[in-house]
Amino acid sequence: MSSNSSKIDLSANTRNSAIGLLQxxxxxxxxxxxxxxxxxxTVKGANFVAMHALFDRIAGDIGGFSDLIAERIxxxxxxxxxxxxxxxxxxxxxxxxxxxxxxxxxxxxxSTALALFGGSVRHAIGAAADVGDQTTADVFTEISRGIDxxxxxxxxHAASGDA
Length: 163
Prior knowledge:
Blueprint: H1 12-42, H2 48-75, H3 84-90, H4 103-130, H5 134-160
Helix pairs in contact: 1-2, 1-3, 1-4, 2-5, 4-5
């Protein structure tokens, strides 16, 4: 977790604190992207095409957030730790149910994971600002905005009965 030297004008303590906020969210983001892919691969039902496409979009968007987090860790002089084994050990998200295929069950499981991730990212915005790293807070703000939109897309299916 500790940072190497960097010419970024943040103290080593600030960089280390920011890396400590980023790394757990990287694990969660990688896990969340794989959960969306699981939903994408296994969803069935009347709205298959729409749900299949939505879940794929979610996985792709979250993959982009994973890159953003990992690259911020690296820019702070840290080492991103994002292998499947590390992610499985460290993710704070609930294990995605492997026995579901119904779109409404996927909507429930994925919206729960998105909401939990969104909450942890929102908390990290303030924590990053508190340690003096506004740029990392901005990274988390960008991710939060994106997660809120994805959650809205998923929840719209539940609200309309389309799931």
